[in-house]
Every structure is written in structure tokens, then in C-alpha cells.
Amino acid sequence: MYQPPHFREDNREVQHALIRAHPLGLLVTLGSAGLVANPIPFVLDASASPLGTLKAHLSRANTQWQDFDSDLEALVVFQGPETYITPSWYAAKREHGKVVPTWNYAIVQAYGRMRVVDDPDWLLRQITAMTDVQEVARPEPWNVGDAPAPFVAAQLKGIVGIEIEITRIEGKWKVSQNRSEADRQGVAEGLRLAEDDASRHMADLVDARGALPGGRQS
User: Fold this and answer.
1) Cα distances (Å, whole numbers) of residue 123 to 19, 41, 131, 137
2) Under 8 Å CB-to-CB from 140, ≥6 apart: which residues?
3) 155 burial level (CB within 10 Å; 0-12, 13-18, 19+)
4) Confidence band (pLDDT; 50, 70, 90) for 48?
């Protein structure tokens, strides 16, 4: 991933927090016909390995779990908040007009070799953990045990587990750090006027990340 130093995010807790907040990762592997990519919901086990381990499951009919090069790293892309940034929000537009549109975003890319796990007990733990994370905030959380055990057992036969011990992880927070303080304030104000959750979240990131030292732009 292209990584200008001022956008790079190496804090492991921050990277892991984005994965947990946006667990639908794009799983990319190399198969016999070329690259294969599928959106897959992952559970992050931060304690299972030094950089964390990703656990998920695929439909047994999805051939990605069969046709991949186990000697190569798989890539999982976790896309966080992202928004278009109009140059109309920049103070610089009014000063000299030398501005262009851009896109702000936060993203994490995790790499590691993929291992297939075809074990019903492992799969039950994985789907239970995934479901519990998503249901915990609901007034009446659903859990796997609410479904009849024979039904769950039958469903497990239709899926295959995958596990990726992360060996490399990169974070990138491109949130207007390369703009002047006046431009950044304009971006944050413009985003908040949009009144949608994604824009408000990005406005908070713009405020929190701050500008480059000395207001430097690049």
C-alpha cells in the first residue's frame, strides 16, 4: 500500500479497533485462474498471535478455500470510514484557487498465510463469537443456541473455516493531515453539514488527527 509517512498508522490498538468496527474484510488470494476476492466477516483474536489472528468461514461452495496458494500470503482489506472531499471546503480555494478534490479514508490491510479449518467444533466457536460481537448491543440479543441444535449442525456442514495469523499489518488514515489548519477546519465543518454518520465520523477524525507539523502540506 502506498504510504506517505504522515498518513501511516502503526499503532496496533488503533489498527485492531478499525478491524473490529468494520469486520467485513475483502479476502484476496491467488488461485489457479488468478486473483480471487470475496467479502468475508472476520473475528479478530488479538491474543492468538503477536499481530493477531483473523478467523472466518466461507461457504463450502465457495472455491476460494480450495483454490489458493498456501505458500503465499493472503491479503484482507478492512475499509473504515471514507468520504469525498470537495475543494469548495478549503480556505485555499478562496485565497488562490489552486485546489483539487480528494478522498479521505481509513483502512487496514492484514497479510498472512491462510489455513483451512474443517472442524465443526471450531466452526461453532467461530460463528458463536462472530454472532455475539454483533448482537451484544441489541435489546434482546440473538445467539446461536436459540436455533435448534440439529439445524445448526446441518448449517455447519455447509461451511469451512479459515484462519490467518497476521504476519504483516498496515494502517493508513488519510484524513486531511496534509492541509493547512484553515483548510482542515473547513473540511470538518463541511462534513458535519452533510448530517450523515459517515461524514460526521470523518469530521471527528479530521479534528482528532491534526495537521502536519508547522502546517506543512504535501
Assistant:
1) 20, 14, 12, 23
2) none
3) middle
4) very high
Helices 120-135, 149-156: crossing angle, 10 deg rounding: 110
| Rounded Cα–Cα distance for residues 16 and 108 (Å) | 9
> What φ, ψ does residue 164 adopt, rounded to 5°?
-130, 110
What's the rounded Cα separation, in Å, for the pair 191 and 81? 12
What is the four-CA torsion angle of 1, 76, 79, 170, rounded to 10 degrees?
Answer: -40
Torsion of CA 4, 83, 171, 211, to 10 degrees: 50
Cα 121 to Cα 211: distance, rounded to the nearest angstrom: 49
Per residue in 24-34, pLDDT (tens digit) is: 999 999 999 99
Determine the straight-line distance between the first and last CA of the chain, rounded to whole angstroms.
18
Copy the grid coordinates of residue 144.
446461536
pLDDT tens digits along 131-140: 999 999 999 9
For the chain, the residue count is 218
Three cell numbers written together for 118:
474443517
- Position 217 scores a pLDDT of 42
> What sign for the dihedral angle of Cα 47, 48, 51, 52?
negative
43 strand-pairing partners: 55
- Of residues 77, 81, 82, the one with CA closest to residue 24: 77
